[in-house]
Design a protein that fits this description.
Number of strands: 0
Structural class: mainly alpha
Pfam families: 2TM (PF13239)
Protein name: 2TM domain-containing protein
Organism: Flavobacterium zhoui
Order of helices and strands: HHH
Largest sheet: none
InterPro entries: 2TM_dom
Oligomer: single chain
Keywords: Membrane, Transmembrane, Transmembrane helix
């Protein structure tokens, strides 16, 4: 029975990862399409005053961080890091209680 539960857990973990990747690609496609539109609008309406690079820059930074998180290139935002920090805080709290008793 435990084997079935582990398979279920791995399946749901993999499914969650696939959903996160799909979300990232949706964000990336939106970023590309919208910013192409903004470049066109900017160049057609006020070519002497360029402003399209501001949303391109800031949204681009967001897309990069989204990709880093989804593809696990940010070691401080992973599940292992979270678990390690939780254990660290629990051990610290346990140590504080023992000194008071």
């Amino acid at each position: 029975m435990e084997h079935i539960n582990q398979n279920d857990e791995r399946y749901y973990s993999a499914k969650k990862q696939v959903e996160e990747i799909k979300g990232f690609y949706g964000n990336l496609i939106s970023y590309i399409v919208v910013n192409i539109g903004l470049v066109i609008v900017n160049l057609m309406t006020s070519p002497d005053h360029l402003w399209f690079y501001w949303p391109l820059l800031w949204w681009g930074i967001g897309v990069v961080f989204h990709g880093l998180r989804v593809f696990k290139y940010m070691p401080f935002v992973t599940k292992d890091w979270e678990e390690k920090k939780i254990r660290e805080f629990m051990d610290k709290e346990k140590g504080n209680k023992e000194t008071w008793e």
